[in-house]
Amino acid sequence: MPRKPVVKPSINRRIFSQEFKQEAVQMLLDGHTASSIVERLGISGTNVLYRWKKELLTSSGPIASAMDSKVKELENELRRVERERDILKKALNIVGRIE
């Protein structure tokens, strides 16, 4: 039976300050894309950024979690309304061509 390779922890692992993490998460909450934040700040990946967000919201208590869920709900509603608007624009274009 083959042996599993031993994974050694990386020696060059970067450590970010709590303030840096909070600022990165704030950029995410302000509407910047995760990939643009990762690229701009030199973070190893978007999964790290989302983990920081989860940790920050968990440590902030139930109010922050409720706010996060409300923001997600409002973003979904915005996407729905934008789709409806786009459909109405297309319908107006079609009706305008017929007349």
Q: Averaging pLDDT over every residue, what do you get?
A: 85
- Flag low-confidence runs: none
The number of helical elements comes to 4
- The overall number of domains is 2
Count of DSSP strands: 0
Largest sheet, strands/sense/barrel: none
Helicity range of the residues?
over 70%
Radius of gyration: 22 Å
Instruction: Give the overall shape, derived from the CA principal axes.
Output: elongated
Beta-strand share of residues: under 5%
First and last CA, distance: 76 Å
Oligomer: single chain
Class by SSE composition? mainly alpha
Order of helices and strands: HHHH
Architecture blueprint of SSEs:
Elements: H1 18-29, H2 34-41, H3 46-60, H4 62-98
Helix pairs in contact: 1-3
Features of the shown structure:
about 100 residues, mainly alpha, 2 domains, 4 helices, about 0% strand, elongated
Architecture overview:
The structure is a single chain. This protein has 99 residues and is mainly alpha-helical. The chain folds into 2 domains: 13-60; 62-99. Helices cover 73% and strands 0% of the residues. α1 crosses α3. The mean pLDDT is 85.
